[in-house]
Design a protein that fits this description.
GO terms for molecular function: 3-phosphoshikimate 1-carboxyvinyltransferase activity. By secondary structure, the chain is of the alpha/beta class. It contains twelve helices and 24 strands. Helix 7 packs parallel to helix 9 and helix 9 packs parallel to helix 11.
Length: 434
């Protein structure tokens, strides 16, 4: 699907979609349990991949008419799947499920789409092998397809922290139901640390004790997953909140306000987007108790932003920088190159088609707002939901129409994204090619 956006002003109230990060963890945690109910879950392409894995491990995920997930779990010991686990485009699914597969008394095969088969899994495979499982890349390059044979009993393991925090999350989730537990020694500084804090928060809500240590993290073995009252509710997603928040900051009419509901505080590092937008000069009011954010447009100025802990915000910040005066310098960004696409190069190239001047370094991206013009053009979504949504923001304030090719990939994390824009008053056309 291609989407063409006409420059538009935004105003109104929208609700934050549920968190993708929390939903993945909650679905798998419920799978590790005997049974659990997950409310307010994001039902997207990525989270459905995790639900399919739970089913292949012997559980069952049923979505009711009101969107509640009723999950019968595999109670800490996954079956050997009767089929290959297809993780589609979901890196989170592959990492978390690979560790779960190591608990099964047999062999599991995992794969995904072309993009996912290019993403690094080697450190996790090595960690699982060190813990007693067999874990291999079929091509010997640390990338999917993966073949994992268990069971593992736990123990001590070391792993780099600067490739993906999801390796640590995967080991903590699985470690709770091993015999010996797992103690993780970080070989390097942990990138995207707030995502592990999310994991610790979800584990605690499911009655599992895991914790920081001087060396890294550890989780005791022999634990059971059981949320209080048998239910868990997923909070709103700040990665997704960044898009309507940025839209309100750059495309509001004078005196107009965009209100975002469902923005309650949590361990999400991406809540930093609220402060970032405020630092750039927008008028932002976050009522944490009510879970509402009000934002209105004001002249923006470029700032320095470190995305070591918030890699998913880079595309949004890059678009904000294109509208701002001066330079916006995004640093500590090398790990952002290993997402669904190389998001550093992708944003530089696609914003460049719109007339934005950038400077790209191995671990940084600088957007030269003052030297840039925003002219409508045809840009590529690159099969990456966050690139698509960030480019859509640019289309709100570009001179002329902006067409985004492959825009249907927003279904990965924010299926209702374009409908949300329309609710805020954006004029857009969808072309599904038929």
């Amino acid at each position: 699907m291609n989407v063409t956006i006409t420059p538009s002003n935004v105003e109104g109230t929208v609700r934050a979609p549920p968190s993708k990060s929390y939903t993945h963890r909650a679905i798998l945690a419920a799978g590790y349990a005997d049974e659990a109910t997950v409310r307010d879950a994001l039902w997207s392409a990525d989270t459905r991949a995790t639900a399919r894995a739970v089913t292949l491990f012997g559980g069952d995920v049923t979505r009711t008419d009101d969107g509640v997930l009723e999950i019968d779990g595999f109670d800490g010991r996954p079956d050997v799947p009767a089929d290959v686990i297809d993780c589609a485009n979901s890196g989170t699914t592959m990492r978390l499920v690979t560790a779960a597969a190591a608990l099964a008394d047999g062999t599991t095969v995992l794969t995904g789409d072309e993009s996912l088969r290019s993403r690094p899994q080697g450190p996790l495979l090595e960690a699982l092998a060190d813990l007693g499982a067999e874990a291999d890349s079929t091509r010997g390059n640390g990338q999917a397809p993966l073949v994992v044979t268990g069971p593992l009993s736990g123990g001590d393991v070391s792993i780099p922290g600067d490739v993906s925090s999801q390796y640590i999350t995967a080991l903590l989730l699985a470690g709770a139901v091993t015999e010996d537990g797992i103690a993780i020694d970080l070989e390097t500084e942990l990138k995207s640390a707030p995502y592990v804090d999310i994991t610790l928060e979800v584990l605690a809500d499911f009655g599992v004790d895991a914790r920081h240590t001087d060396a890294g993290f550890e989780v005791d073995g022999g634990q059971s997953y059981a949320p209080v009252g048998g239910e868990y509710a997923v909070p709103g997603d700040f990665s997704s909140i960044s898009y309507p928040l940025a839209a309100g900051a750059i495309a509001g009419d004078e005196g107009a306000t965009v209100r975002i509901e469902g923005a309650h505080p949590s361990a999400q590092g991406d809540s930093a987007i609220v402060e970032i937008v405020e630092r750039m000069g927008a008028d932002v009011d976050w009522d944490r108790d009510a879970g509402t954010i009000d934002v209105s447009t004001a002249p923006l100025s470029g700032i320095d932003v470190d995305v070591e802990d918030t890699p998913d915000l880079l595309p949004t910040i890059a678009t904000l920088g294109a509208v701002a005066d001066g330079d916006t310098h995004i640093t500590n960004a090398e790990h952002v190159r290993y997402k669904e696409t190389d998001r550093v190069s992708a944003m530089a190239a696609e914003l460049g088609k719109l007339g934005v001047e950038t400077t790209e370094e191995p671990d940084s991206l600088t957007i030269h707002g003052t030297e840039s013009t925003l002219e409508g053009a045809t840009v590529r979504g690159r099969a990456d939901h966050r690139i698509i949504m960030a480019l859509a923001l640019a289309g709100l304030v570009a001179d002329g129409e902006t067409t985004i090719e492959g825009a249907d990939h927003v279904a990965v994390s924010y299926p209702g994204f374009f409908s949300t824009l329309e609710e805020l008053g954006v004029s857009l056309e969808r072309d599904d090619g038929h």
